[in-house]
């Protein structure tokens, strides 16, 4: 214990006496921390923008068209099979989900692009309203909007909004009453608005051939199973009763969202390479530090300092400088995050941020490992050039 206390004293004294030099490397670590945290937040934000609606879906699995490769926009299943799905043993409830895109015309003349999602009121697929109420009628001209719509515009619950949709070669305009708002419903990088299926069929983008024709298909069916039922067994039973369908749990459906896996892989690769650069930068700095103070280490060993004291002093010094750098970087990240508008896809998730910070604290000792080993192996006589 006495050796560790002495090592800590030596490390702190050296950092204080050379504070300008160590502050410089701490600032470099702070910049690396800033970059790593923002890459982690960007990955979380982009992932949220793609998967948020599916992640918060009140369902255990989705039913797709068998030939759709579990891609929601490519799937088309008959809406009538929802009733069949509800009769399968173990199924608590099932609801259709139909997706499209539209735009809300704002009062200032701008447009807000949104994901238009058709659901059956009160069934899986419709998110719970956190403001106002949920959808009521099957054909009601009403809408529940994602909270992002309220944040990005002057729209409020109770307002009447106008949405624009391309029907054939012309734009058509529809008015909807905002009866409620929900939270956490981004889908394909856009806030979502939820309408009854019949209303969705009127509003959705149509080709010339589809104008005037009612649709009988939806993209997927969300299924919720009983608490005491086995989800895999229910999926097997459902596929045996309904032809030409495939099922996937929510996580699998998210991984098959177009571009999601590639996007996350790219962001994670960037984070890994940034950490590797951090290891090299920290390792290079402390290696130079050790080389510059070889005579001092030789003197310490000559007067009786053990390898434990020398090694512990180097480790404590690296940990201290790294901690200061990470703390500065984390504080700067927090300050910058306060200035971002809601449209910026950067989300500082507690778990991913904690993992990033732990990784940054680990790369300090890891980067300085070579310099620590070198310091321990220094021979006093050779260091003092007496050999």
Written overview of the protein:
The protein is α+β, with helices and mostly antiparallel strands and 387 residues long. It has 2 domains: 173 residues, no CATH class; 186 residues, no CATH class. Helix content is 49%, strand content 20%. The chain contains 13 helices and 12 strands. It has a 6-stranded mixed beta barrel with strand order 3-4-9-6-8-7.
**What is the CA–CA distance across the termini?**
33 Å
Fraction of residues in β-strands:
15-25%
Ranges where pLDDT stays below 50 over 5 or more residues in a row are none
- The 3D shape can be described as elongated
Q: Quick summary of this structure?
A:
The chain has 13 helices and 12 strands.
Descriptive tags:
387 residues; alpha+beta; 2 domains; six-stranded mixed beta barrel; two-stranded antiparallel ribbon; 20% strand
